[in-house]
Automatic annotation (TrEMBL):
<feature type="binding site">
    <location>
        <position position="81"/>
    </location>
    <ligand>
        <name>S-adenosyl-L-methionine</name>
    </ligand>
</feature>
<keyword id="KW-0819">tRNA processing</keyword>
<dbReference type="GO" id="GO:0002181">
    <property type="term" value="P:cytoplasmic translation"/>
</dbReference>
<dbReference type="GO" id="GO:0022008">
    <property type="term" value="P:neurogenesis"/>
</dbReference>
<comment type="function">
    <text>Methylates the 2'-O-ribose of nucleotides at positions 32 and 34 of the tRNA anticodon loop of substrate tRNAs.</text>
</comment>
<dbReference type="InterPro" id="IPR029063">
    <property type="entry name" value="SAM-dependent_MTases_sf"/>
</dbReference>
<feature type="binding site">
    <location>
        <position position="55"/>
    </location>
    <ligand>
        <name>S-adenosyl-L-methionine</name>
    </ligand>
</feature>
<dbReference type="GO" id="GO:0002131">
    <property type="term" value="P:wobble position cytosine ribose methylation"/>
</dbReference>
<keyword id="KW-0489">Methyltransferase</keyword>
<dbReference type="GO" id="GO:0141098">
    <property type="term" value="F:tRNA (cytidine(34)-2'-O)-methyltransferase activity"/>
</dbReference>
<dbReference type="InterPro" id="IPR050082">
    <property type="entry name" value="RNA_methyltr_RlmE"/>
</dbReference>
<dbReference type="InterPro" id="IPR028590">
    <property type="entry name" value="RNA_methyltr_E_TRM7"/>
</dbReference>
<keyword id="KW-0963">Cytoplasm</keyword>
<dbReference type="GO" id="GO:0005737">
    <property type="term" value="C:cytoplasm"/>
</dbReference>
<comment type="similarity">
    <text>Belongs to the class I-like SAM-binding methyltransferase superfamily. RNA methyltransferase RlmE family. TRM7 subfamily.</text>
</comment>
<dbReference type="InterPro" id="IPR015507">
    <property type="entry name" value="rRNA-MeTfrase_E"/>
</dbReference>
<feature type="active site" description="Proton acceptor">
    <location>
        <position position="162"/>
    </location>
</feature>
Length: 269
């Protein structure tokens, strides 16, 4: 879909163009990393729903580009999306639907017995304009990403996923809390306040005792949310701490070119 003139006036859209990121979304992962230091010293990462590739660019920039030629060989970054994208050095691409079991298996095989240190997912369905439906599909994508993560994350690993805040969000939080010791919701300044988008961040991945990785279709055994939802029609309300990012730029404002230049000049002096 073409960009509207409002999109083009957006500060992060302009910064992305200027700095060579494929999408303004890059700043959302950059701000998460700045806040939580998620990418420090990592070698193995999965980028789910990756096209056009700005998050993969961020992963490559932190995990691949600074390394020596010898150390680059140890880096494994895989980007998966139903849509194709231009190649990124240091990133292997897979054009597949993440909700297919065969895709999850292919991702697992890519790591050849090793485990990923981080799984990120910026997945969103094509908007139909029907908010309830879009949110439902988005939350199912998050659950799929968590499920894939349970197979491929190493103990102590991290997980970042876009999440739409809606009446089904608790369903994803419930699962996050089962598998991560530290869970929060992060709102980068690159994500508009007016948007229901936020990012759920899980750190210190740990499979619960007795948990059997039995299928990729996400109906985990003893899932407490399943039966509560069956009776009430809603998943149990689960809350997680909220962390905001206050940066120099605000995605809800429009800046004139002069302001951008002046702020940059001030910074350089
Ligand atoms: C917002 S874009 C991702 C932007 C990307 N993180 C970046 O920074 O360039 C959402 C992506 O999710 C992908 N997607 C949605 N559902 C998917 C699925 N089931 N399997 C794979 N990709 C999916 C879409 O094809 C789309 O490219």
């Amino acid at each position: 879909m073409g960009k509207t003139s409002k999109d083009k006036r957006d500060i992060f859209y302009r910064l992305a163009k200027e700095q060579g990121w494929r999408a303004r979304s890059a700043f959302k992962l950059l701000q998460a990393d700045e806040t939580f230091h998620l990418l420090d010293g990592l070698h193995r990462a999965v980028d789910l729903c990756a096209a056009p590739g700005s998050w993969s660019q961020v992963l490559a920039k932190h995990m691949y580009e600074p390394l020596s030629e010898e150390d680059k060989k140890k880096v494994k970054i895989i980007a998966v999306d139903m849509q194709g994208m231009a190649p990124i050095e240091g990133v292997t691409q897979m054009r597949e639907d993440i909700s297919k079991e065969s895709t999850a298996e292919a991702i697992i095989n890519f790591f050849e017995g090793e485990k990923a240190q981080i799984v990120v997912c910026d997945g969103a369905p094509d908007s139909t304009g029907m908010h309830d439906f879009d949110s439902y599909v988005q939350i199912e994508l998050v659950i799929t990403a968590i499920s894939i993560a349970t197979y491929i994350l190493e103990e102590g690993g991290s997980f970042v996923s876009k999440i739409y805040r809606c009446d089904k969000t608790s369903k994803a939080y419930t699962q996050m809390k089962r598998f991560f010791k530290d869970v929060c919701v992060f709102k980068p300044s690159a994500s508009r306040n007016s948007s229901i988008e936020a990012f759920v961040i899980g750190r210190q991945f740990c499979l619960p005792e007795g948990h059997k990785l039995c299928n990729l279709t996400l109906e985990w055994q003893n899932d407490p949310s399943t039966w509560i939802e069956e009776f009430t029609g809603y998943p149990p309300a689960v809350t997680v701490p909220f962390v905001g990012y206050k940066g120099e730029w605000d995605s809800d404002r429009t800046y004139g070119m002069t302001i951008m230049c002046t702020m940059r000049l001030c910074r350089n002096h």
